[in-house]
Amino acid sequence: MKSIPSVLTAAVAALALSACSDGTSPSSANKVGVGFQLARTSTAASMTAASVDGSTRSVPGSMPTITASPAGMNISRDGDVLLVTKAQLVVRNVKLKSATAACADDDDDEATGKPSTSTSGSSSRREDDDECAVIRVGPYLVDVPVSGADGARVAVEVPAGTYSSIRLWLYKVTSGDSADVAFRQANPDFRDISLRLEGTFNGTPFIFVNDVNAKLTVPLAEPLVVGTGGDDVTVTIDLSTWFLRSSGGLYSPAAANTPGQTRAQVQNNIRNAFRAFKDRNKDGRED
Protein backbone atom coordinates (compact mmCIF):
# COMPACT_ATOMS: atom_id res chain seq x y z
CA MET A 1 0.00 0.00 0.00
CA LYS A 2 1.33 3.39 -0.94
CA SER A 3 1.72 5.98 1.78
CA ILE A 4 0.25 9.45 1.36
CA PRO A 5 3.54 11.20 0.46
CA SER A 6 4.02 9.04 -2.66
CA VAL A 7 0.36 9.25 -3.59
CA LEU A 8 0.29 13.00 -3.10
CA THR A 9 3.34 13.48 -5.32
CA ALA A 10 1.48 11.92 -8.21
CA ALA A 11 -1.81 13.56 -7.31
CA VAL A 12 -0.43 17.07 -7.08
CA ALA A 13 1.24 16.68 -10.46
CA ALA A 14 -2.13 15.75 -11.95
CA LEU A 15 -4.17 18.47 -10.28
CA ALA A 16 -6.78 20.30 -12.31
CA LEU A 17 -7.71 23.67 -10.89
CA SER A 18 -10.75 25.48 -12.24
CA ALA A 19 -12.05 28.73 -10.81
CA CYS A 20 -14.57 31.48 -11.39
CA SER A 21 -15.04 32.69 -7.85
CA ASP A 22 -15.91 36.35 -7.33
CA GLY A 23 -14.70 37.18 -10.83
CA THR A 24 -11.07 36.39 -10.07
CA SER A 25 -8.70 34.49 -12.34
CA PRO A 26 -5.85 32.03 -11.74
CA SER A 27 -3.40 34.92 -12.13
CA SER A 28 -4.51 36.19 -8.74
CA ALA A 29 -4.12 32.77 -7.11
CA ASN A 30 -2.35 32.08 -3.83
CA LYS A 31 -1.04 28.84 -2.40
CA VAL A 32 -3.44 27.14 0.02
CA GLY A 33 -2.67 23.85 1.75
CA VAL A 34 -5.26 21.34 2.92
CA GLY A 35 -4.33 18.85 5.64
CA PHE A 36 -6.05 16.23 7.81
CA GLN A 37 -5.60 15.34 11.46
CA LEU A 38 -7.43 13.51 14.23
CA ALA A 39 -9.22 15.75 16.72
CA ARG A 40 -7.38 16.14 20.02
CA THR A 41 -10.54 17.03 21.94
CA SER A 42 -13.99 15.50 21.64
CA THR A 43 -16.96 17.25 20.01
CA ALA A 44 -19.37 14.65 21.42
CA ALA A 45 -21.50 17.28 23.15
CA SER A 46 -22.55 18.66 19.76
CA MET A 47 -23.02 15.22 18.22
CA THR A 48 -25.41 13.58 20.63
CA ALA A 49 -28.56 14.64 18.74
CA ALA A 50 -27.46 13.05 15.46
CA SER A 51 -29.44 9.80 15.43
CA VAL A 52 -30.01 7.48 12.49
CA ASP A 53 -33.79 7.91 12.63
CA GLY A 54 -33.52 11.71 12.72
CA SER A 55 -34.78 11.99 16.29
CA THR A 56 -33.13 14.06 19.00
CA ARG A 57 -32.30 12.65 22.41
CA SER A 58 -29.99 13.20 25.32
CA VAL A 59 -27.15 10.72 25.62
CA PRO A 60 -26.23 9.45 29.07
CA GLY A 61 -22.66 8.82 30.09
CA SER A 62 -19.52 10.86 30.31
CA MET A 63 -17.78 12.83 27.60
CA PRO A 64 -15.11 10.80 25.76
CA THR A 65 -11.55 11.46 26.86
CA ILE A 66 -8.86 11.62 24.15
CA THR A 67 -5.18 11.05 24.82
CA ALA A 68 -2.70 11.14 21.93
CA SER A 69 0.69 9.44 22.11
CA PRO A 70 3.21 7.86 19.73
CA ALA A 71 1.44 4.53 20.37
CA GLY A 72 -1.84 5.84 19.00
CA MET A 73 -5.02 7.72 19.77
CA ASN A 74 -6.57 6.54 23.04
CA ILE A 75 -10.31 7.19 23.48
CA SER A 76 -12.05 6.24 26.72
CA ARG A 77 -15.65 6.57 27.88
CA ASP A 78 -17.49 4.96 30.79
CA GLY A 79 -14.91 2.19 31.17
CA ASP A 80 -14.54 1.38 27.47
CA VAL A 81 -11.10 2.03 25.99
CA LEU A 82 -10.47 2.35 22.24
CA LEU A 83 -6.86 2.59 21.05
CA VAL A 84 -6.48 3.51 17.36
CA THR A 85 -3.05 2.63 15.97
CA LYS A 86 -3.78 3.32 12.28
CA ALA A 87 -6.36 5.55 10.61
CA GLN A 88 -6.78 5.77 6.84
CA LEU A 89 -9.46 7.18 4.56
CA VAL A 90 -10.01 7.71 0.86
CA VAL A 91 -10.74 11.27 -0.26
CA ARG A 92 -11.72 12.64 -3.65
CA ASN A 93 -12.58 16.08 -5.04
CA VAL A 94 -11.61 18.49 -2.29
CA LYS A 95 -13.14 21.89 -2.99
CA LEU A 96 -13.02 25.27 -1.29
CA LYS A 97 -16.41 26.95 -1.47
CA SER A 98 -16.69 30.71 -1.54
CA ALA A 99 -18.88 32.64 0.86
CA THR A 100 -21.08 33.87 -1.99
CA ALA A 101 -21.44 30.80 -4.22
CA ALA A 102 -21.80 27.05 -4.11
CA CYS A 103 -19.75 24.58 -6.13
CA ALA A 104 -21.35 22.99 -9.14
CA ASP A 105 -22.21 19.37 -8.44
CA ASP A 106 -20.49 18.08 -11.56
CA ASP A 107 -19.04 14.94 -10.00
CA ASP A 108 -22.01 12.60 -9.67
CA ASP A 109 -21.87 9.38 -7.70
CA GLU A 110 -19.83 7.22 -10.03
CA ALA A 111 -20.86 4.05 -8.25
CA THR A 112 -24.51 4.56 -9.28
CA GLY A 113 -24.30 7.09 -12.11
CA LYS A 114 -26.84 9.22 -10.25
CA PRO A 115 -26.39 12.78 -8.97
CA SER A 116 -25.02 12.89 -5.45
CA THR A 117 -26.05 15.17 -2.60
CA SER A 118 -23.86 17.21 -0.30
CA THR A 119 -24.09 16.62 3.41
CA SER A 120 -23.62 19.26 6.09
CA GLY A 121 -24.59 18.02 9.53
CA SER A 122 -27.80 16.04 9.03
CA SER A 123 -29.07 17.88 5.96
CA SER A 124 -28.52 17.23 2.25
CA ARG A 125 -29.17 19.33 -0.83
CA ARG A 126 -28.40 19.50 -4.52
CA GLU A 127 -25.85 22.16 -5.42
CA ASP A 128 -26.44 23.78 -8.78
CA ASP A 129 -24.57 27.09 -8.78
CA ASP A 130 -21.73 27.37 -11.27
CA GLU A 131 -19.26 29.60 -9.41
CA CYS A 132 -16.51 27.69 -7.70
CA ALA A 133 -12.86 27.28 -6.78
CA VAL A 134 -12.14 23.60 -7.26
CA ILE A 135 -9.21 21.40 -6.28
CA ARG A 136 -9.49 18.01 -7.93
CA VAL A 137 -7.31 15.42 -6.26
CA GLY A 138 -7.75 11.72 -6.22
CA PRO A 139 -8.99 9.43 -5.21
CA TYR A 140 -6.07 9.40 -2.80
CA LEU A 141 -5.30 7.65 0.44
CA VAL A 142 -4.91 9.78 3.56
CA ASP A 143 -2.84 8.27 6.36
CA VAL A 144 -3.99 10.39 9.29
CA PRO A 145 -1.35 10.47 12.07
CA VAL A 146 -2.75 8.70 15.15
CA SER A 147 -0.42 10.69 17.41
CA GLY A 148 -2.59 13.77 16.86
CA ALA A 149 0.09 15.44 14.75
CA ASP A 150 -0.68 17.42 11.63
CA GLY A 151 -0.81 15.24 8.52
CA ALA A 152 0.68 15.72 5.07
CA ARG A 153 -0.77 18.62 3.10
CA VAL A 154 -1.78 19.16 -0.51
CA ALA A 155 -0.81 22.71 -1.55
CA VAL A 156 -2.34 24.24 -4.69
CA GLU A 157 -3.09 27.65 -6.12
CA VAL A 158 -6.56 29.00 -5.30
CA PRO A 159 -8.00 32.28 -6.64
CA ALA A 160 -8.11 35.20 -4.21
CA GLY A 161 -11.45 35.48 -2.46
CA THR A 162 -13.34 34.59 0.69
CA TYR A 163 -14.18 30.96 1.35
CA SER A 164 -16.63 29.75 3.97
CA SER A 165 -16.41 25.96 3.80
CA ILE A 166 -14.53 23.01 2.42
CA ARG A 167 -16.17 20.24 0.50
CA LEU A 168 -14.76 16.74 0.24
CA TRP A 169 -15.91 13.36 -0.89
CA LEU A 170 -15.33 10.51 1.57
CA TYR A 171 -15.05 8.07 -1.27
CA LYS A 172 -15.83 4.39 -1.74
CA VAL A 173 -13.59 3.29 -4.60
CA THR A 174 -15.80 1.22 -6.90
CA SER A 175 -16.02 2.81 -10.33
CA GLY A 176 -14.27 1.64 -13.48
CA ASP A 177 -12.69 4.96 -14.46
CA SER A 178 -8.93 5.05 -14.89
CA ALA A 179 -8.24 6.89 -11.62
CA ASP A 180 -10.23 4.38 -9.55
CA VAL A 181 -8.67 1.40 -11.30
CA ALA A 182 -5.17 2.76 -10.69
CA PHE A 183 -5.99 3.44 -7.05
CA ARG A 184 -7.32 -0.08 -6.48
CA GLN A 185 -4.23 -1.58 -8.08
CA ALA A 186 -1.99 0.47 -5.81
CA ASN A 187 -4.16 -0.07 -2.71
CA PRO A 188 -5.87 -3.47 -2.96
CA ASP A 189 -7.00 -3.37 0.69
CA PHE A 190 -9.28 -0.43 -0.19
CA ARG A 191 -11.43 -2.05 -2.84
CA ASP A 192 -15.09 -1.10 -2.20
CA ILE A 193 -14.33 0.67 1.09
CA SER A 194 -13.60 4.26 2.04
CA LEU A 195 -11.94 3.99 5.45
CA ARG A 196 -9.97 1.62 7.64
CA LEU A 197 -8.95 1.67 11.31
CA GLU A 198 -6.68 -0.65 13.27
CA GLY A 199 -6.22 -0.87 17.01
CA THR A 200 -7.60 -2.48 20.15
CA PHE A 201 -10.95 -2.24 21.93
CA ASN A 202 -10.77 -3.05 25.64
CA GLY A 203 -7.52 -4.85 24.88
CA THR A 204 -8.82 -6.95 21.95
CA PRO A 205 -7.31 -6.23 18.49
CA PHE A 206 -9.66 -5.10 15.74
CA ILE A 207 -9.71 -3.96 12.12
CA PHE A 208 -12.65 -1.72 11.24
CA VAL A 209 -13.57 -1.03 7.62
CA ASN A 210 -16.53 0.84 6.20
CA ASP A 211 -17.93 1.75 2.80
CA VAL A 212 -19.58 5.05 3.77
CA ASN A 213 -19.70 7.14 0.59
CA ALA A 214 -20.61 10.74 1.34
CA LYS A 215 -19.98 14.24 0.06
CA LEU A 216 -19.41 16.47 3.05
CA THR A 217 -19.69 20.24 3.13
CA VAL A 218 -17.77 21.28 6.24
CA PRO A 219 -18.14 24.92 7.35
CA LEU A 220 -14.92 26.68 8.32
CA ALA A 221 -14.86 27.95 11.90
CA GLU A 222 -14.21 31.37 10.37
CA PRO A 223 -13.95 32.40 6.71
CA LEU A 224 -10.68 31.90 4.88
CA VAL A 225 -9.60 35.04 3.00
CA VAL A 226 -7.19 33.95 0.29
CA GLY A 227 -4.80 36.68 -0.80
CA THR A 228 -4.13 38.20 2.62
CA GLY A 229 -1.64 35.78 4.13
CA GLY A 230 -1.72 32.34 2.55
CA ASP A 231 -3.62 30.62 5.34
CA ASP A 232 -3.99 26.85 5.14
CA VAL A 233 -7.04 24.74 6.00
CA THR A 234 -6.99 21.85 8.46
CA VAL A 235 -9.76 19.25 8.47
CA THR A 236 -10.14 17.41 11.78
CA ILE A 237 -11.79 14.02 12.25
CA ASP A 238 -13.22 13.26 15.68
CA LEU A 239 -12.84 9.50 16.16
CA SER A 240 -14.27 9.76 19.68
CA THR A 241 -17.73 10.32 18.19
CA TRP A 242 -17.62 7.49 15.65
CA PHE A 243 -18.37 4.75 18.20
CA LEU A 244 -20.40 6.80 20.67
CA ARG A 245 -23.01 4.51 22.24
CA SER A 246 -26.35 6.16 23.03
CA SER A 247 -26.68 4.21 26.30
CA GLY A 248 -23.15 5.11 27.44
CA GLY A 249 -19.71 3.82 26.66
CA LEU A 250 -18.47 3.00 23.15
CA TYR A 251 -19.52 0.56 20.46
CA SER A 252 -17.05 -2.18 19.63
CA PRO A 253 -15.55 -1.47 16.18
CA ALA A 254 -15.80 -5.20 15.44
CA ALA A 255 -19.56 -5.07 16.08
CA ALA A 256 -19.82 -2.09 13.73
CA ASN A 257 -18.34 -4.21 10.92
CA THR A 258 -21.59 -6.21 10.76
CA PRO A 259 -24.61 -4.76 8.88
CA GLY A 260 -27.33 -3.62 11.26
CA GLN A 261 -28.37 -0.79 13.55
CA THR A 262 -24.95 -0.39 15.17
CA ARG A 263 -23.21 -0.10 11.81
CA ALA A 264 -25.82 2.39 10.57
CA GLN A 265 -25.39 4.54 13.68
CA VAL A 266 -21.59 4.49 13.34
CA GLN A 267 -21.86 5.50 9.67
CA ASN A 268 -24.09 8.41 10.67
CA ASN A 269 -21.58 9.42 13.33
CA ILE A 270 -18.74 9.30 10.79
CA ARG A 271 -20.55 11.69 8.44
CA ASN A 272 -20.89 14.21 11.27
CA ALA A 273 -17.37 13.93 12.69
CA PHE A 274 -15.58 16.35 10.35
CA ARG A 275 -14.67 19.91 11.29
CA ALA A 276 -12.46 22.50 9.52
CA PHE A 277 -10.62 25.68 10.39
CA LYS A 278 -8.15 28.04 8.78
CA ASP A 279 -4.65 27.28 9.94
CA ARG A 280 -2.62 30.47 9.86
CA ASN A 281 0.54 28.93 11.30
CA LYS A 282 0.22 25.64 9.36
CA ASP A 283 0.65 23.71 12.59
CA GLY A 284 -2.67 21.88 12.79
CA ARG A 285 -3.94 24.16 15.55
CA GLU A 286 -6.83 26.58 15.38
CA ASP A 287 -5.53 30.09 15.93
Automatic annotation (TrEMBL):
Q: Which UniProt keywords apply?
A: Signal
Signal peptide location in the record?
A: 1-21
Region spans: Disordered:
103-130
**Name under which the protein is recorded:** DUF4382 domain-containing protein
What is the native source organism of this protein? Gemmatimonas groenlandica
